Every structure is written in C-alpha cells, then in structure tokens.
Amino acid sequence: MRIIVSLVLATLLFTSCEETKRVIDTAGRVQLSGTYNITRAGTQNVTGNSTNITFAALDKSVRGTAGCNEFFGNYTLDLYALNFGQIAATEQYCDEDVMQGERAILNALRDTGSYTLENDILTLLSKNDRSVLLKASKVKNEN
After folding, report:
1. pLDDT tens digits, residue range 14-35?
2. Cα 18 to Cα 99: distance, rounded to the nearest angstrom
3. Neighbours of 35 (CB within 10 A)
4. Is residue 143 part of a domain?
5. What confidence tens digit (pLDDT) does each residue in 69-108 have?
6. Which partner from 4, 16, 21, 130 sits 20 to 30 angstroms from 69, CA to CA?
7. Nearest-CA neighbor of 138 among 58, 55, 46?
8. What is the 3-state secondary structure (H, E, C) of the chain?
9. Which residues contact 32 (CB under 8 A, 6 or more apart)?
10. Left (φ > 0), alpha (ψ -120 to 50) or beta: where does 140 sit?
C-alpha cells in the first residue's frame, strides 16, 4: 500500500512541476511578444527605425529587418533561456556600413543563449559568457 501511495504522490508532484513549467514558459513567450526597435548590435550602435525584431508568441516565430534585408525564423524559450533556430534572410546588397550592422544583428541572434526584459528594453545575452549581444526597445501601441 505504501508503494502505491508513494507512486501516486510522485506522479502528482511530477505532473504539477511540468504544469508549472508550462505556465512559466507561456508567460515568458507572452511577455516577449511584440516588436522591438534594435538600438545596439554587438559593440555597434544602430540608428533609425529600419532595424527591428518581432516575436510572435503563438507560433514561436521571429521576424524583422536588419537594415536593408528581412530575416525570419523560430525561437525556443525555456524560462530565460532563449535560442533561435535557423534564421533565414533575404540577400539584397546594401551599403557596406549597413551590411556590417546586419551581420552584427544576425550574429547576435545566432549566439543568443538568454535574455532580459526590463522597462521595455530587451537585451539578448551570449550563450557563452552572458555578454550583451543586442539591445532593443519595445514599440508601444502596436496596431
């Protein structure tokens, strides 16, 4: 009898933990959802509204503009661990300064391992040493 009670309690505990994790993961995706104007990629400041990133919580997709080219892909979120899958991008050639910024943005997405979101400022952090890879500010009043 003790074994059965122990198994039932262990099952309930495991199910409860999994459900809690799912709720936290969903809340994180909803919190991250929206469009952000990219202000910094690596050590390079980014100016203008032509660089942005949009997270869609429902299908865990990401898309944006890296200066002159569009990019898109998927992401996974586990608490504050954030990873991007393969990111595809259009291949239009632009001014070399713009292309350097684009490379910095796409490299930041590839190397991301976690994030912070404080006061509507999104910071993507390196999976290796948690250094800042990208900063972006949330766009208010999206329609």
Report:
1. 665 554 444 444 444 468 999 9
2. 43
3. 16
4. no
5. 999 999 999 888 999 999 999 999 888 888 888 999 999 9
6. 130
7. 55
8. CHHHHHHHHHHHHHHHHHHHHHHHHHHHHHHHCEEEEEEEECCEECCCCCEEEEEECCCCEEEEEECCCEEEEEEEEECCEEEECCCEECCCCCCHHHHHHHHHHHHHHHHEEEEEEECCEEEEEECCCCCEEEEEEECCCCC
9. 55, 57, 77, 82, 115, 117, 122
10. beta
pTM: 0.77
Answer yes or no: are the C-beta atoms of 111 and 133 closer than 8 Å: yes
**Residue 66: inside a domain, yes or no?**
yes
- 64: CATH: 2.40.128.270
Question: Is 69 inside a domain boundary?
Answer: yes
Residue range of the domain that includes 51: 2-138
Say which residue the tokens 């292309």 belong to: 99
- How wide is the angle at C-alpha 124 spanned by C-alphas 137 and 134, nearest 5°? 65
Please give the radius of gyration of the chain, using alpha carbons only, rounded to the nearest integer: 19
Residue 132 forms part of a structural domain: yes
